[in-house]
């Protein structure tokens, strides 16, 4: 089976309009692509007909993400990463599902103070938000209301993998071998970069938590963002996260807060999502570089 992608990366490293088509066989991704071609696949978000990449979701590591409820749905923004270099990055809004054995847990906080843990596999919808770097998980607010929940968090287990929902007219669907490789040995290898405690991965977790705590844009102020960051940082310290990771996230939040004073800058939420995407792109490149070096 072969798939094609267009590589607009010229020898200078900049994108060009006239791009030649390159073909590769699907195999272990770090063996099938040169680094420049892989960089384009990661960043393109191209509009492909064939199934997009299988993705991993960063594990929560004891810091679950709050669900925000609005317009009858409760949702959360989660950091994700590419597990296939020989496939296109997904478009925003692409439908995904959990791979067998992956775990997402809804932690519902009840009126009487108890917490109820619910397997989320059959309850949450998963859609990409920004290429391969983030997804949004959601479920109907009525589901939580029926439990008597006053609020809820989502917890991502280790080795969590998501698969693109199959389209009936897909000319190149994910094969069983591709799924087995991406969700099995590659995802276990990726856990060393994305699931375990480490500087940049923990920084990405903390930025994600701030994004998910932001109120509607109209009520966002510098003081609000500072207070939210204080809550997140306190939780990170209690969880034993390194000062390096906390300081890294603090710098990102401070940079994005400064944009609130300028009408020309992006909103805090958009700024944080952009910086989160940069973090996840850097981590993903590091993962593939390490994989290639150890192959």
In a few lines, what is going on in this structure?
This protein is of the alpha+beta class. Helices cover 39% and strands 26% of the residues.
Strand and helix map with partners:
Layout lengths: L1 E8 L5 E11 L3 H4 L2 H10 L10 E3 L7 E2 L1 E3 L2 E10 L12 E4 L5 E7 L4 E5 L5 E6 L3 E7 H7 L1 E8 L4 E4 L11 H19 L4 H15 L8 H17 L4 H16 L9 H26 L2
Antiparallel strand pairs: 1-2, 3-6, 3-13, 4-12, 5-6, 6-11, 7-10, 7-13, 8-9, 8-12, 10-11
Helix pairs in contact: 4-8, 5-6, 5-7, 5-8, 6-7, 7-8
Assign an overall shape: globular
Q: Rounded to an integer, what's the Rg over CA atoms? A: 19 Å
State the low-pLDDT regions, or none.
1-48
Record field, number of beta strands: 13
Largest sheet: 6 strands, antiparallel, barrel
Task: Specify the number of helices.
Answer: 8
Biggest sheet: strand arrangement: 3-6-11-10-7-13
Q: How much of the residues is beta strand, in percent?
A: 25-35%
Q: What is the H-and-E element order?
A: EEHHEEEEEEEEEHEEHHHHH
Counting structural domains, the number is: 3
Descriptors:
13 strands, six-stranded antiparallel β-barrel, 39% helix, disordered N terminus, 3 domains, four-stranded antiparallel sheet, 295 residues, alpha+beta, 26% strand, 8 helices
Protein model, in words:
The chain is an alpha+beta fold and 295 residues long. It has 3 domains: 2-44, no CATH class; 55-175, no CATH class; 199-293. The protein has 8 helices and 13 strands. The strands form 3 sheets. It has a 6-stranded antiparallel β-barrel with strand order 3-6-11-10-7-13, surrounded by 4 helices. Helix 5 (199-213) packs across helix 6. The longest helix has 26 residues, at 268-293. It starts with a strand and ends with a helix. The relative contact order is 0.15. Mean pLDDT is 81; it is low at 1-48.
